[in-house]
Amino acid sequence: MKFTAPVEKNKNYTATIVDLTYQGMGVAKIEDFPIFITNALPGEEVELSVTKVAKSYAFGRVVKFIKESPDRVNNIDVAYTQTGIAPLQHLSYPGQLAFKQHQVEALFAKAHLDDVKVNETIGMETPYHYRNKAQVPVREIRGQLETGFYKRGSHDVVPIEDFYIQDPEIDKAIVVVRDLLRRFHIDAYDEETNTGVVKTVMVRRGYYSHEMMVVIVTRTHKLSMVNELVEEITKALPEVKSIIQNVNSARTNVLLGQTDRIHFGSSVIHDQLMGLTFEISAHSFYQVNPQQTERLYNLAIEKAQLAGKENVVDAYCGIGTISLAVAKHAKQVYGVEIVQDAISDAKTNANLNGIDNVEFKVAKAETQMERWHEAGLQPDVIMVDPPRKGLAPEFITAATDAQPSRIVYVSCNPATLVRDVQLFMEKGYHLEGAVQPVDQFPQTTSIESVVALVKD
Ligand code: SAH
What gap in Å lies between CA 334 and CA 191, rounded to an integer? Predict the structure, then answer.
């Protein structure tokens, strides 16, 4: 039987939005056939035009709002939706927090864990201007060098000056650098022909320290007028403690190349997080929303219920933020992480803060967990902060074989959190209290949460 969708491309329909996907798209149903619509919110009635029809779903765009949601924010900037910088900007902040809580609830319910309680999402008082790092493409548009952001799903740059979710001091710095590049007639990179010079400007600024780093990523080793450029940047931006030219000749989506030229100041800046000092290089991973990271990690540490006598494993430890913050509450901390550079940073940061009860290993968490277990390590608490794909099943086996009394799980993807919690349940652990979502990325659809699991 030939399948026919109940909707046709380029035709208009009237429908009510019944749901919001985890990517923040409104969902309407016509004869049970889902249509995904940007910039549409649950409860809204819209006239929509179908833009694409696939086998089991379609995409559409709003032609006219017949009834708007009370949670709708008007006066939005289309550039933020076009670029995906702020895909939830059209939803009020309380609406965003509720959306994230409901997403987590729905995923637990779908896994038949209906009795799991999900707390209200912990949000920010000021849910914008929070990012401490920006990396913006530099391109020539209609004869002029521009900084901005890629249009979603393309490599076309939309010029932007106010990035909305970044530290405004960083926005200012980008405009300063852009104007100097224009003034000194330095060429922007051309992606199509792989010619030109400046590919990206990256700026980092310490939330507490206010130290600023400017990284200019170039295709070529040569950067004309570099001395003048550096002098003018430091004059205009007194917070700048480091100006680096990073050479990335490769035609790739990887942002940074291997070669750094320090044109001014130091190769690193410093900032504080959880009361500790961290050294941050151009290449370092560092949490981008320090205020909410502190909330999330403090909650995780609270849930670990440490008295100072425990052995703690911090798996997927990155630059050791959790390990180092936990160290003063524990006897000994063991961190494991797959990226060598992150572990180098973690060790530097341990020294910087005079912490000597932490041991870091470069390995796959699942492999190292097994090794520690075989070596007789008995962790009292295991803390995990894995990437979006969640925990490897071998990790869960090795972790539960070690029989810790608690496991604290920091998650950046509720779907894999639910999957992993089910596996821990099969291995004799249960959830303690509620799941706590924390909004690390306001205006976007990312959802972080933290839970504690204890031995039955
Ligand atoms: N808490 C950390 C961030 C964790 S992000 C911090 O503040 O720095 C998740 C980390 O898991 C990343 O650093 C990533 O490199 C690491 N990772 C991914 N897969 C891994 C694996 N199989 N084993 C160990 N670490 C892994």
Answer: 44
Atom of ligand 1 at shortest range from CA of 319: 8
At position 95, the amino acid (one-letter code) is G
User: Which residues lie across from 160 on neighbouring strands?
Assistant: none
pLDDT of the residue at 2: 58
pLDDT tens string 102-117 = 999 999 999 999 899 9
Three-state SS for 16?
A: strand
Residue 316 counted as an annotated binding residue:
yes
**pLDDT attached to residue 3:** 67
The atom of ligand 1 lying closest to the CA of 285 is 8
CA 22 – ligand 1 centroid, Å: 23
Question: Taking a C-beta distance cutoff of 8 angstroms, is the pair 449, 97 a contact?
Answer: no
**pTM across the whole model:** 0.94
385 is in an annotated binding site: yes
- CA 388 to centroid of ligand 1, rounded, Å: 10
> CB neighbours of 177 closer than 8 A, spacing ≥ 6?
147, 201, 203, 214, 216, 233
Contact status, residue 442 vs residue 130, Cβ threshold 8 Å? yes
The whole-number pLDDT of residue 377 equals 96
**Which residues make beta-bridge pairs with 30?**
33
**For the chain, which domains are there?**
12-72 (2.40.50.140), 133-271 (2.40.50.1070), 289-455 (3.40.50.150)
How far away, in angstroms, is 62 Cα from ligand 1 center? 40
For β-strands 212-218 and 240-247, DSSP reports them as parallel
Has 232 been labeled as part of a binding site?
A: no
**Of the residues 316, 362, 413, 440, which should be mutated to test ligand 1's pocket, given the most ligand atoms within 8 Å of the CB?**
316
pLDDT value at position 220?
97
Q: How far is CA 382 from the centre of its chain?
A: 23
Task: Give residue 338 CA to ligand 1 midpoint distance, Å.
Answer: 7
The secondary structure element, H or E, covering residue 373 is: helix 365-374
Ligand 1: residues with CB < 6 A are 285, 287, 316-319, 321-322, 336-339, 342, 364-365, 385-387
The separation between the first and the last C-alpha atoms of the chain, rounded to the nearest angstrom, is 52
Give the pLDDT of residue 392: 96
The atom number, within ligand 1, closest to the CA of 293 reads 7
What is the signed CA dihedral for 409, 102, 442, 419, rounded to 10 degrees? 30
Instruction: Name residues of the chain where pLDDT drops below 70.
Output: 1-3
At residue 6, the pLDDT reads 94
Catalytic residues: 412
Give CA–CA dist 49/253, Å, rounded.
Answer: 34
